[in-house]
Amino acid sequence: KMLLATDRLYGIGLSTGALLLLEASIELPLCGLVLLSPYLRIHHRLAPHAGLIRFFKRFHHRKMDSPSSRYYYSRRPLHGIHQIHRLLKRVRKLLPRVGTPALVVSAEGDRTVRVASAVELYEKIGSQRKEYHRYGPEVPHVLTTEENPAWREVLELTVDFIGDLETTGETGRRGA
Questions:
Q1: Is residue 132 a part of any domain in this protein?
Q2: What does the alpha-carbon distance between residue 24 and residue 1 come to, in Å, rounded to a whole number?
Q3: What is the C-alpha separation between 2 and 16, in angstroms, rounded?
Q4: How many domains is the chain partitioned into structurally?
Q5: CATH code: domain of residue 34
Q6: Residue 151, domain extent
Q7: 130-167 burial by CB neighbour count: b if 16+ within 10 A, else e?
Q8: What letter would DSSP give residue 68?
Q9: Has residue 98 been placed in a domain?
Q10: 135: β partners
Q11: Splitting the chain (176 residues) into consecutive groups of 10 residues, what average pLDDT does each group show?
Q12: Predicted TM-score of the model (pTM)
């Protein structure tokens, strides 16, 4: 149990962190969710089969350019990809129960996850109050670093969304 000096708690999650936040929002009394680069599908065509492939190959290796190497692994454990797919199954089922106000932000330049799945996720969220923003092809998966030319705008969107919820006192409903 969290002991905080406030009764208004917001959650901000990036990528898989956004999925974990969605799952947690069913139980936690959050006043708002900011979901950055959330997804229901990963770009790599073999990702859905990681559960089987992991028994034959432990890691997926990939070449990294220097800016990306600060935020990504060059070796991805396939068991981890399998666990992400298990999380995705749970999140898909609970999206209609998510009643917390939500801001969903994605980018066409995302090469990690399928951007269309962020729209699908947004549409399935059960919240009465939700917003969707999509950036163009120049914006990458990681929305919060200086490698994203719109990172300040993403932060402003986040601040404005939470500020509006604070002004109105909106909280939504927790999952049933």
A1: yes
A2: 13
A3: 22
A4: 1
A5: 3.40.50.1820
A6: 9-44+89-168
A7: bbbeebeeebbbbbbeeebebbeebeebbeebbeebee
A8: G
A9: yes
A10: 107
A11: 72 96 93 95 62 57 61 60 82 96 96 91 97 97 92 97 91 62
A12: 0.83
